[in-house]
Amino acid sequence: MIRVLLVDDQPLLRSGFRALLDLENDIEVVAEAGDGLECLALARRHLPDIALIDIQMPVVDGIEATRRIAADPALAGVRVVILTNYGFDEYVFDALRAGAAGFLVKDIVPEDLLHAVRVAARGDALLAPSITRRLIDRYVTQPLRAVPGPGLEELTNREREAVVLVARGLSNDEIAAQMAISPLTAKTHVNRAMTKLRARDRAQLVILAYESGLVSPGS
């Protein structure tokens, strides 16, 4: 059973999401919160698998709530999926940097919402390659000074190659074709790299690759 915490300051929207999720046999909404502070308290109490969190909320916003969840060892199993009205904007970028596993636009169709919850619960990447490329575009237009990150020296050559390809926006299938390996082996390389670099998910792996200098903007 996938346990979900809904976090949004609009009760009507929470009710709509809950009604949809509760219809599924493998998904259970364990709690609802109206702000980020309440979200943190309920996350610690219920330890959900997924926290669907709105960005703009009173008291503590979604970005800060995400940052606190990512920093709390007791909540290491909670994957944050950001809810937004605006698509891929600056708020979403900041939330991904804070530790979110991905994001959804609030007008998402029901089937895509259910698929996203299940994908996130499996620990797979919720960001489509097209969204990863938007992250890349941000680094190309706003290059950062490279700061070597922990774990880079632990990567094997194949893992390093896989990280570079992830940072260039390739999916696991595309990485497999590029490296002449199976998709399962490509996924293994990516997952091991995430573990060594302490990246919670694929989005953070892209960010770490650019911030560490492993990949250069425009390369």
Automatic annotation (TrEMBL):
Domain Response regulatory: 3-121
Biological source species: [Actinomadura] parvosata subsp. kistnae
Xref: Pfam families: GerE, Response_reg
GO BP terms, alphabetized: phosphorelay signal transduction system; regulation of DNA-templated transcription
Domain HTH luxR-type: 148-213
PANTHER family registered for this protein in UniProt: TRANSCRIPTIONAL REGULATORY PROTEIN NARL-RELATED, TWO-COMPONENT RESPONSE REGULATOR
GO MF term set: DNA binding
Name of the protein in question: DNA-binding response regulator
